[in-house]
Amino acid sequence: MLIIALVSKKQNMSHLTLSQRYEIKALHVAQKSATFIAHYLNIHRSTVYRELERNSAGKRYEAAEADRRAATRCRWRSRPRKRSAAMEQQIVRYLRDGLSPEQIAGRCRLEGIDMISATSIYKYIYDDRKKEGAMQILAPTTS
Questions:
Q1: Helix H segments across 42-137?
Q2: In sequence order, what are the residues at sequence separation of 6 or more whose Cβ sits closer than 8 angstroms to the Cβ of residue 99?
Q3: Which of 30, 35, 54, 63 sits in a 20 to 30 Å window from 104, CA-based?
Q4: What values do phi and psi take at 124, rounded to 5?
Q5: In this predicted structure, what is the pLDDT of residue 79?
Q6: What phi and psi values does residue 56 have, to the nearest 5 degrees?
């Protein structure tokens, strides 16, 4: 029989550890509720629901695979914060090809190319046009 002490105080943690994921797996296999698992691990129940939703293949949850997926998502979130000369060249090239800032950011994300956000691309275009820089040639013509 499994005896578990429930702790009432929640910890402020930002990421689940691999050992916590193994505990989630064991308790999930034992058909314990997400609320029960959350109390046992001293985390919020929405964290358990989110973890099971994001990382279950069908109805099966694998802790090691979940940890790998979480690490991959973390790498995708670490986006460059500053615009580089290479990014500027890429932006100009894609704009000349007729892509919007959203399309540029999305394409680069899919291809694994470092790129700033679509909002930052818009800011770059606006700032460059104020200075009458390279973007000026891409400005729409007025009739």
A1: 45-55, 63-77, 85-96, 101-111, 118-130
A2: 107
A3: 54
A4: -60, -45
A5: 58
A6: -95, 130
Helix (H) or strand (E) holding 57: strand 56-57
Angle, helix 118-130 to helix 85-96, in steps of 10 degrees? 90
Q: Which amino acid is at 122?
A: Y
Distance CA 46, CA 51 (A): 8
The answer to whether the beta carbons of residues 135 and 128 sit under 8 Å apart is yes
Type of residue at 77: R
What's the pLDDT tens digit per position in 50-105? 999 988 877 789 999 999 988 887 776 665 568 888 888 999 999 999 999 999 99
Residue 37: is its pLDDT beyond 90? Answer: yes
Residue type, 34: A
Residues 6+ apart with CB under 8 A from 44: 10, 38
Whether the Cβ atoms of residue 33 and residue 43 lie closer than 8 Å to each other: no
